[in-house]
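User: I need a structural model of Glycosyltransferase involved in cell wall biosynthesis from Asanoa siamensis for a docking pre-check later this week. Nothing fancy, just the predicted structure tokens so I can convert them on my end. Input:
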Amino acid sequence: MATTPRLVLLRDSEWPDVPGVCCWRTAAAAAFTAAGTTVTDVTWQKPAPPPAVPKPPPPPPPSFARKAARKIRRTVFPPPPPPPPAPDPGPQPVPGLAAAGADVVVAESLRAALAAVDGGAPGERLWALALPPSRGLPGDTTTFGTLVNELAPRIAGFVTDSEIGRDAVERTVNTARPRVIILPPVVPDRPCPACADTSAPESTPTGGTAPQGPGSAMPTESPGIGSNTAEDVADDIAQLAGWRHPSDAYSFPMTRRRGLSAEWAPADLLDWAQESRGVPRPSLPDAPPEWTAAAQDRGAREVVAATLPAEAAPARSHRDVLISGFDLKFIRELADRIDDRADFTVSLDEWQFVSKGTSRTAPLLAEADTVVAEWARPSAVWLAKHKLPTQNLIVRLHRFEIEAPYPKQIEIDKVDAVVYIAPALGPRIRDEIGWPKEKLVYIPNFLDIDWLDRPKLPDARFAIGMVGTERSLKRLDLALDLVAAVRRVDPRFVLHIRSIVRDSTHAGVSRAEQEYAGWVEDRIERDPILRGGVSFEPPGRDMARWYRKVGAFLSMSDIEGVHLAAAEAMASGAVPVFRPWPGVSEVYDDHWVHRSVDDAAAALLANADPKVWAERSAAAKAEMRRRYDPAAVVGAWVDLLHGDIDRAREPFASYVRI
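Assistant: Understood. Predicted structure tokens for Glycosyltransferase involved in cell wall biosynthesis:
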């Protein structure tokens, strides 16, 4: 009989039990109970500062004779060395947290979450409420930015209040790709018994609110965790209190509660003629945020589902899986999903060099039941040579390796299965490398569709996206031809590029690539049609946030395997425009592929009609759920890791052309 999961709400002792805070605590308990968990509270107490040791009064100044005697005495009888300093006990476990035996922990403050994970709490079960005080910047060094960046690689994820709040968290974090789930902390249709009759709080100068009633004083001491300050604690509490009675005074926290489309009080700024104060603050296009009990319950269910391990099939035994190779970026998310299951423990071994393993490679190989060589590179050669006969070896091959020398160095007889990620690659592996088709299994890349599928920003249909244009084979020059053709007709269209920018003097690239980059720079700068119509942003982990503003996407490459960025864009609802690179029609539906610049320009211009764009956007999403169904991808890998090759082929057999 299945047991009810146990969830701990980790309180922060610095948060007073005032209106707003009690509303969050009551709502969180109700939502997570509705999600099927048993909820208990544990309170984290900020460690007390060490007691100050009073300094002894200074002795009276010694006479000359005493000084001389002391010097002789120290020379003849040197004083013993001072005792060593007491060892630093380091972070301590949060009292009561381990005893609670939690399957899921939700910390109400970032510093409580940091204290828990520093004290040994399992990070994969820990979530933190993140209330961004501002829009944030990548690599933000504020207290909030420092804490979320420290926590992001170490915990399961963050809970925040709204889509705007999620954007701010993802924009701020650059240490990992954070998982952020929306769960509004204070909602009108789930009243808090403790403060249901409390009157509206007074506004603060920043548009927030101050807690009211007994015990509402803000903390005055610095908490001392993660360089947080009393002001940061007060800011979190003020946000929770302010959301109880939304105000029309503009502030970033209030935009998350009311939405940017709300009516706002005039800004306290001088007007154009500098004759009076009070400038109207226009509302902006935005969907109203959903602050309801239903949204809280939905967020709570997502947190629980994302934390608890998936149950294994009853007849399947546990297996230790090693994923090894140089550059694991395309398989990390899949590895996380497999590791979430009860029947697998996954270890990652990322080589720092293409041809040299790590100090962990051999020990991890010795412990593994199943080994996955990511890329058919020297790592796969080494793993095939050193694996035991009782171990299963799976090699995952991408397009680039077909033309490299490595595959023919792999002892294919020692390989149990070869996974390829694009249908067009199967015949090439068989014919050009000579590997038997009986070992080939087509499983597409894992695509986190639910993470990418978010509401688009207003008029996103006029924003054309492109990712990773730093090499000439990505053909940014053709994209510029296309965008220029579109902007001649409708200048509302703009190309947004997210990529490393290699200028004409960039070191480490060929002379031809430098010349290409310089020519592209000159064209964007000097062509009046393109000037103002192309923007660049550096790479980042917040791609789902970035795709919200992109309504179309260009794949202009000379050659690709699957062009995963295009798949991500389509999963977000961007309408794709593909150049006919080899194999594209086997990876994507053919009606997205355009045979000329004029055809592609006509397709983009048609997106100006909101109804046309909405239909195409829905079709792109549906295609990705069909071709890249995340559950089917994980299921196929589960079967393969358990050694069932025939069953692993079934989910995507209709796309195989061998």
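Before docking, keep this in mind: Residues 200-228 have pLDDT under 50 and may be disordered.
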